[in-house]
Amino acid sequence: MTIRTDALPTQEMTINMGPQHPSTHGVLRVILTTDGEVVTRAVPDVGYLHRGLEKIGERVTYAQYMPFTDRLDYLAAMNCNCAWAWTVEKLAKIEVPERAEFLRVIVCELNRISSHLIAFGSYTADMGAFTPFLYAIRERERVNDLFEMLCGSRLTYNYARVGGVSADAPPGFLEKSKEFLDYFEPKLDEYNNLISYNKIFVHRLANVAVIPAEEAVAYGLTGPNLRGSGVPFDLRKDEPYSVYPKFDFKVCVGTGERGTLGDCFDRYMVRINEMRESAKIVRQALAQIPDGPVLAKVPRLFKPPVGEAYFRSECPRGETGIYLISDGSVNPFRLKIRTGSFVTMNIFEKVTRGLMIADVVAVIGSFDIILPEIDR
Amino acid sequence: MEAQAIFETLKGKFGDAVVELQGEGFSPAFVVVAPGAVKEVSRFLKEDPALSFDALMCLSGVDYKEKFAVAYHLHSLKHRHAIGMKAFLPRETPSLPTVDDVWPAANFQEREAFDLFGIVFEGSKDLRRILLPEDWEGHPLRKDYKYPDFYHGIKV
Amino acid sequence: MSSDPAHGTPPGTPAASAGPAVTGPEAHVMVGNADLFVNWARKSSLWYLLFATACCGIELMQAGASRYDMDRFGAVFRATPRQSDLMLVAGTITHKMAERVKRLYDQMPEPKYVIAMGSCANTGGPFFKDSYCVVKGVDLVIPVDVFIPGCPPRPEALIDGIMRLQKIIMQKKNYGAKA
After folding, report:
1. Contacting A residues, span 71-100, partner chain C, CB-CB under 8 Å
2. Which of C94, C95, C105, C138 to probe the A interface (max A CBs under 10 A)?
3. Which residue of A has its CA nearest to C98?
């Protein structure tokens, strides 16, 4: 008997994933064209959270824009706050007191930990393991408590200011941060024991959506997604800003330890390892933090000189670059925010070709995208 | 390589297509090129071994009121240097060649500039609105944009 | 002991010290108000649609996870509107999204409730004045039962909102002449 090739005819099918889908990390919509279970084309449709942050920037003053940067990436609001402050300071050439820079680095790195915790927790939940999610939130709540102590808010901090930070650390904050690190660092080994090297988990991630190094560079990937492909590029190290040169830390890169270099597992492991490095930076910053003022004298209605500046900083989801044009008035003339997630989405269609539908979820999680960064 | 040296290299190669260097007050400095030459200059910037700008970090549309501009922020992972490239466009017909075959990273950002400014990138493989709905009227980041009153019956 | 709807005791629960133990078929009979019973069942299993669009979604996630554990109130997240009783609109609704919100709401089975969580879902929040594409409140698209202020609201505020919704549910009249 011969097998008839037309016995099971397959037909291409178009499936809509999102904008309401639990594992697209927000309101991402992906239009999947599938042949059976295999994805032949996955076109991302973004913009469901486009709030016009860039237009708003042209209508408010420099100081008023700070709360909007919280909402640019709410999982790493501190990093975005500081990125905005650093950009304006670069444009206006403002000297920031050293204690303020140390505080910024401390909060940025703590926020990187809490952001990567969400990335880790929600990724494992997407992969079918709900328990690590609860572990991750348990630790994240502690970081939230620290930030609440610092600025009164759990998620949208509005802590940095042009020229420094809004308030000095309250008594006990630095000690509590150290306590948190003592508590947190052993937990990373716990995560690795719990899930990272779990056989099922590794099988879901290893060799899925491999991005070679050249391709990652050509598509403008940054942050953990670029380092997951084995490119040791970290703005904190390679284009140092703030007080990062004072600290000793390692740039974590993917090693292809369970599969091919640049697969989902590498990107996942980069984040896990980066949390350890961030903890190291916070420890050093806590040890070295000097006394002094935390806010430079900046006029309330502040007008920077005419000019254009582009400042890049390393946020948890890659490079956040702010291109700021000033015409010398109280409002920015034009402000463009280049975010890691938006640029990463560009490669999505290419890497998902030929994967299974379930792997698409693995890819979205491994990029650790966040929708307000994509849509702004 | 410093901005001045990059500018002189480009000037020597492309002549009048490279207009000027915006250095003072600009960080990083911008090389202003004629819109028609954007693709050739980009290809040279990427492929010349001494420059090798392998990453397009940021592509932004700008509305300077009397004219539009597209600003490219380039970075080289190999040499660890950065430069800006800018092309000014007339307000009436803002169009220039795409660079998405030079840097694949350009596609989404060009779509964004098209969506929010109405700048047309000729030869782009996929130029559609990206952030706003397909039937949205106007390009919101233009300085003369008037907010609509209603969209699909909901007050804006 | 009287049944106390506000504290979750099922209506019609036999009193603990009601004299000698009742045996036979009448032991399985409870007498109560049908409205109370149905409402109690509804308020105790508020399965919510995990509809996190923006910042509030993270607080929603954290409210459902380790420390705040919203499962205690019978509120469990569902991925699909077809299994949900409650739509928690957590975050900014843009004009591109508005149509989808309406469609998701239409897909939910009756009875259904909506909580608008956070300033964006209430009024447009910080984007009210200057944004061109944010819907100024989700109540322009779908009916809302409870508004929770805050940007974003704390998990405690969210839990308070859910308890207020439970009170609203308990007041519903489903049966009888005035239903």
Report:
1. 71, 74-75
2. C94
3. A48
Alpha-carbon distance C171 to C144, whole Å?
16
Between CA B108 and CA A339 the distance in angstroms is 12
- What is the distance between the alpha carbons of residues A182 and A286, in angstroms, rounded to a whole number? 13
Residues A235 and A244 sit within 8 Å (Cβ to Cβ) = no
Distance of alpha carbon B147 from alpha carbon A58, whole angstroms: 14
CA angle (A339 as vertex; A16, B88 as ends), nearest 5: 105
Chain C hits for B145, CB-CB cut-off 8 Å, are 132
pLDDT value, residue B44: 87
**Long-range Cβ contact pairs of A106-109 (< 8 A, separation 24 or more):** A106/A174, A106/A177, A106/A282, A106/A285, A106/A286, A106/A289, A107/A78, A107/A82, A107/A147, A107/A150, A107/A157, A107/A159, A108/A78, A108/A79, A108/A82, A109/A278, A109/A279, A109/A281, A109/A282, A109/A285
- Strand pairing partners for A337? A322
Q: Using CA of residue A28, residue A33, residue A38, residue A40, what is the dihedral sign?
A: negative
pLDDT at position A92 is: 86
* pLDDT of C30 above 80: no
Q: According to the model, what pLDDT value does residue B57 have? A: 87
pTM of the model: 0.87
CA distance B10 to B15: 8
Question: Which segments in chain A show pLDDT lower than 50?
Answer: 1
Does C141 reach chain B within 8 Å, measured CB to CB? yes
From C55, C144, C63, C124, select the one nearest A26 (Cα to Cα). Answer: C55
* Chain A residues with CB-CB distance to C79 below 8 A: 21-22
User: pLDDT by residue (tens digit) across B52-82?
Assistant: 888 888 899 998 888 899 999 988 888 888 8
pLDDT digits (tens, 9 = 90+) for C75-87: 888 888 888 889 8
What pLDDT is attached to residue C177?
A: 58
Rounded to an integer, the average pLDDT of B8-34 is: 83
Distance (Å, whole) CA B66 – CA B16:
22
Residue A195 dihedral angles phi and psi, to the nearest 5°: -135, -35
Point out which residues pair with C87 in neighbouring strands: C49, C114
Q: Nearest Cβ partner of C96 from A47, A135, A138? A: A47
- Would you call A371 an interface residue with chain B, using a CB distance cutoff of 8 Å? no
Q: For residue A316, give the nearest of A107, A63, A47 by alpha carbon.
A: A107
Task: Name C106's Cβ contacts closer than 8 Å, sequence gap at least 6.
Answer: none
- Tell me the pLDDT band of C2, cut-offs 50, 70 and 90: very low
Alpha carbons A225 and C154: distance in angstroms, whole number? 32
The amino acid at A238: D
**pLDDT, tens digit (0-9, with 9 covering 90-100), for C117-131:** 988 888 888 888 888
**Do residues B120 and B97 lie in contact, with contact meaning Cβ atoms separated by under 8 Å?**
no
Residues 6+ apart with CB under 8 A from A315: A73, A76, A79, A80, A83, A223, A339, A340
Q: What gap in Å lies between CA B26 and CA B30, rounded to an integer?
A: 7
Residues of A in contact with B140 (CB under 8 A): 52, 55
pLDDT of residue A183: 92
The torsion angles phi and psi of A345, rounded to 5 degrees, stand at -60, -25
pLDDT at C1 over 50: no
Q: Which of C97, C127, B128 is nearest to A55 (CA)?
A: C127
Q: How does residue C11 score in pLDDT terms, banded at 50, 70 and 90?
A: low
Angle at CA of residue C154, ends C149 and C157, nearest 5°: 60
